[in-house]
Amino acid sequence: MATKERKNPKLHITEQPITLSNWHQHVNWVNTSLILIVPLGGCVAAFYTKLQAATAAWAVVYYFWTALGITAGYHRLWAHRSYEANCRRLPLRIFLACAGGGAVQGSIRWWSSKHRAHHRWTDTAKDPYSVMKGAWYAHFMWMVLKQNPKNKGRTEISDLNEDPVVVWQHRNYGSVILFFGMLFPMIIAGLGWGDWKGGLVYAGILRFLFVQQATFCVNSLAHWLGEQPFDDRNSPRDHVITALVTCGEGYHNFHHEFPSDYRNAIEWWQYDPTKWSIWTWKQLGVASNLKQFRANEIEKGRVQQLQKKVDQKRAKLDWGTPLGQLPVVDWDDFVAEAQNGKALVAIAGVVHDVSGFIKEHPGGKMLISSAIGKDATAMFNGGVYMHTNAAHNLLSSMRVGVIRGGGEVEIWRHHNTQKGKA
Ligand SMILES: [Zn+2]
Ligand SMILES: [Zn+2]
């Protein structure tokens, strides 16, 4: 390995195999500290820290608060612009930037740019958290390991660079996570009920560990578990478990199809507290222009996917030889062959070989035998019995030829008779 490294000094570390001597160079230590080392430290500290009821309740409240910062702020507002919280709505943007910062998942600018790349290059090498590299990679390892800059897909983020809240949060990101990730939850618990240590460990560190893992599930679980009602060409899936874990981000197949829709769940009974929050902010006048795809467009996608599934099932079944592939036979030849002992019946211009079916015919041997060498279209279609759809399908599987002209053609009969006379 060392030889290879020397041979290719310009080879990026991600292009070299992980070995005992270079593994630490593969690790992104800033990310790893924030999503692994500090949270693990919090888990250890929890063994030595009593959990008070008030702190537990505050941790849950702050969990949802900071999770919304990610789902309603980072994701639906900044990454997808699915609604507006413009100049007059500044307080909401500041609130979401601080709350999302408290979730310790990178700055809005970094997060949204990665997420736009994920939507643009889903499941390809340029997808920063492609599930094609494994669910564990999509969940976590893409941040723990350094990424190859060659795979970086460029995304348009000029709108983010023009947003002063985004720029402020990006520039002061260290202070933002320190304060909103740890100090703020600690101060509330400390000043509120004297639990400074519990505030830091439970409402601070363990709470952001849970928010991080919940968000990461959108990249792993939502690309791995569930249904694909809108499109199955890529990996995103819909599942209620993912929705429950991620504040409503679990209807991910819908989301990848309609990314600028402010909703993830389109049915009223589906769990999407992020959507409910955005809707409430609209009623309060702090959010506006909530984007929604027309129900007609959404249904078109659903019907097309249903059709695709039906077509796939249909293709696996035996529907009989297609008419275009059957030999064309003259009426007289059909009659002659039937007279020579072949159990041929003509129905709707198609010759059927019923020899293997005579004994099994539910209407009895007599009826079916009486149709041999004849045009039994009327008999089959209600003249004697209005056959079922299943009977039509079964009949199709007995096709052996198509009659020229569709049946016994009067004018050819005259022609043939005259030929016979001559
Ligand atoms: Zn996705
Ligand atoms: Zn998205």
TrEMBL record:
Q: Which GO terms describe its cellular component?
A: endoplasmic reticulum membrane
Q: Show the stretches that span the lipid bilayer.
A: 29-48, 60-78, 176-194
Entry's Gene Ontology BP terms: unsaturated fatty acid biosynthetic process
Localization annotation? Membrane
Keywords per UniProt: Electron transport, Fatty acid biosynthesis, Fatty acid metabolism, Heme, Iron, Lipid biosynthesis, Lipid metabolism, Membrane, Metal-binding, Oxidoreductase, Transmembrane, Transmembrane helix, Transport
Cofactor needs: Fe(2+)
Could you tell me which SMART domains the record lists for this protein?
Answer: Cyt-b5
Which free-text remark accompanies the cofactor?
A: Expected to bind 2 Fe(2+) ions per subunit.
- SUPFAM superfamilies attached to this UniProt entry: Cytochrome b5-like heme/steroid binding domain (SSF55856)
Q: What is its EC number?
A: 1.14.19.1
Q: Which PROSITE patterns match?
A: CYTOCHROME_B5_1, CYTOCHROME_B5_2, FATTY_ACID_DESATUR_1
Q: Which InterPro entries match?
A: Acyl-CoA_deSatase_haem/ster-bd, Acyl-CoA_DS, Cyt_B5-like_heme/steroid-bd, Cyt_B5-like_heme/steroid_sf, Cyt_B5_heme-BS, FA_desaturase_dom, FADS-1_CS
Molecular functions (GO terms) = heme binding; iron ion binding; stearoyl-CoA 9-desaturase activity
Domain Cytochrome b5 heme-binding stretches: 326-404
Q: Which Pfam family would be a valid example here?
A: Cyt-b5
Q: Which reaction does it catalyse?
A: octadecanoyl-CoA + 2 Fe(II)-[cytochrome b5] + O2 + 2 H(+) = (9Z)-octadecenoyl-CoA + 2 Fe(III)-[cytochrome b5] + 2 H2O
Record's function text: Stearoyl-CoA desaturase that utilizes O(2) and electrons from reduced cytochrome b5 to introduce the first double bond into saturated fatty acyl-CoA substrates.
State the similarity comment. Answer: Belongs to the fatty acid desaturase type 1 family.
Q: What is this protein called?
A: Acyl-CoA desaturase
Species in which this protein is naturally found:
Penicillium olsonii
Taxonomy of origin reads: Eukaryota, Fungi, Dikarya, Ascomycota, Pezizomycotina
